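Appendix C reproduces, verbatim, an entry submitted by the partner laboratory led by Prof. M.T., so that reviewers can inspect both the input and the predicted structure.
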Amino acid sequence: MQPKSLALFLILFAAVLPHVFSQEEEPPPIDIDWIDFVVPMHGPGDRTINMSVGTIFPTVFNIDGAPSPGHHNFRAVGGTASFAFNYFFTANIYLGGELAAMFLPTGGERMFFMVPFGIRAGYQFVFRRFEFPVGIMIGGAPQRMLDEGYFGFIAQASASAFWRFNQDWSFGLNTVWWLVPQRPAPQDGVRYNALGNFLTVTLSARYHF
């Protein structure tokens, strides 16, 4: 082999050799941080629309300071539905509003109606795909039975359990305690003040956006 040909061969060999060995080496491991990343399903700025329907039970009543459970003249069970909006200031703390309606038959085949509304606030505990909001609602409640009407104060305390179906929807169960005081106008010089307590158990669907 002539010197010029030998020199050209050595140059080409030196240029190709590193590429051959680099192809045989295993590529360095890639650290992929997002494999274990879980997309959070709730956070600040989230909003929910809650739609609930279920039953309402009259419980303990107090008339003129005397406890009288079972002496409220209501039937055992009625119906209720509610619509609520919540805004989350953090991943757990929320504030919103609620509008509800209920009906409850009486022993005299009459129907008692109430339409509570108010401001609600609460805290939501989260465990994986389960969410447990607790809260209070304070507002007013128009009430009516036959031709008699009344408007008064109402307070509610609630505890719920939801399963997060996907990013947009969750489904669950609510229990709400209603505290409904009445201070009507005196009749024949006597004021019959009352404090009613109701318990609702409802099924709920929540839309998250």
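The chain has two domains: 3-36, 47-208. Additional entries are available on request from the coordinating office.
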